[in-house]
Amino acid sequence: MTACALTVALLLAASYIQAQQRRGDRSARRAVVVDERLAALRTEARLEATLEQRLSRGRVVQIIGTKRAPDGVMFYRVAVTRRTRGWVQAESVVSPARAGDDARLLRLVRDSEGFDRVARTCIFLDVFPKSPLRPTALLLLGKAAEEAAGELSREAARRLDEREITAGGAPVHSYFMNYNGLDRYNKQGVIFTYDRASRAFRYDGASWREIIRRHPHSPVAAEARKRLDSYNAVIK
User: Fold this and answer.
1) How many angstroms separate the CA atoms of 27 and 95, rounded?
2) What are residue 122's DSSP bridge partners?
3) Which of 39, 85, 159, 187 has the most CB atoms within 10 Å of its CB?
4) Confidence of residue 26 (pLDDT cuts 50, 70, 90)
5) CATH number of residue 52's parent domain
6) pLDDT tens digit string along 27-75?
7) Residues 156, 174: contact at Cβ < 8 Å?
8) Do 144 and 75 share a domain, yes or no?
9) How far is CA 236 from the centre of its chain?
10) Got the DSSP string for 131-155?
11) Containing domain of residue 46, as a range?
12) Domain co-membership, 117 together with 58
């Protein structure tokens, strides 16, 4: 290899290493909004500061600084876009690089209800793929989805007019599977099936299957198997 070729190779290697380091830095600074009640982007690190915008749950930001306000509230300076910067209360976001954030988010999940619990659990599973609390989160997701199936069944029964369904000519179950109340769950990857015999939605059990497949020795595996067996018995 000539001196010129060696120089080029070294420059390319250095450039690659720097790019990898930048990616690692971005990953370490990554945070996700989980509590939109606190996710007010402000011009300064204090609760009285001017509000720039509200950040929605699931919004990804980059942490670029920290500061504690005089009243003790911790704030993160975050980059929302290349041009948008501001301060948000630390408890409004979680980060995979911050110790204990998985446990904090799981506590928030437990205290949430309905779709909020589903959405926050899905964020947990996305942000903390290697957390030891993942099996518990998967079980909570399944329970929340089961509860949602009952509520969605009642809503759909009220809103879908049987005479219009008959007049439409399409298979009855297709009207239920196209019910718009399912949309936000579908976007989270939570899928429901329709049991024609009971005319009700059923959670498809994906989270229980993941527990059994990936965490067969976890404390929640037995309950996951029990719930999956019950589901399989119903849909036969």
Assistant:
1) 9
2) none
3) 39
4) low
5) 2.30.30.40
6) 569 999 999 999 999 999 999 999 999 999 999 999 999 999 999 999 9
7) no
8) no
9) 31
10) -TTHHHHHHHHHHHHHHHHHHHHHH
11) 8-94
12) no
